[in-house]
Amino acid sequence: GSEAASEQGQEEEVIDRLKEHMDNLLDKSAKARQAALQSLRLALSSKMLSEFLLERRLTLTDSLEKCLKKGKEEEQALAGTVLTLLCLQMGSGPEGEEVFRSLKPLLISVLTDSTASPSARQSCATALGMCCYIAAADLE
């Protein structure tokens, strides 16, 4: 019994930290946003969180869009990586397709922007390819 309670307590703690990281994506400080992106990258790459993300995918997608639009090199690169992981977590259903469809034009924009950093362009290219592979309903 106490093992299950301990596990549930850890799960709630993880959820609380994820919510905090998502809130920090809207911080005015670029360093705080980058730290939040790095924490989200780690969390999304180490644990399946599809239920948590399903309810918050629009919020997270909006935050990632802002990071891609307004961020500089490292922030854009991290946002592309987190977007790829979000797409993997959402899967090939309508939710993953919605995330991909909403950010596809922005990914293409960063990818084709010759003034964007190579790391940001590479990350957006990877995100575009992976999300397209996983979630694109349109065969073209």
UniProtKB/TrEMBL annotation:
<dbReference type="InterPro" id="IPR039777">
    <property type="entry name" value="IFRD"/>
</dbReference>
<dbReference type="InterPro" id="IPR016024">
    <property type="entry name" value="ARM-type_fold"/>
</dbReference>
<dbReference type="Pfam" id="PF05004">
    <property type="entry name" value="IFRD"/>
</dbReference>
<keyword id="KW-0175">Coiled coil</keyword>
<dbReference type="InterPro" id="IPR011989">
    <property type="entry name" value="ARM-like"/>
</dbReference>
<comment type="similarity">
    <text>Belongs to the IFRD family.</text>
</comment>
<feature type="coiled-coil region">
    <location>
        <begin position="8"/>
        <end position="35"/>
    </location>
</feature>
<feature type="domain" description="Interferon-related developmental regulator N-terminal">
    <location>
        <begin position="5"/>
        <end position="139"/>
    </location>
</feature>
<dbReference type="InterPro" id="IPR007701">
    <property type="entry name" value="Interferon-rel_develop_reg_N"/>
</dbReference>
<protein>
    <submittedName>
        <fullName>IFRD2 regulator</fullName>
    </submittedName>
</protein>
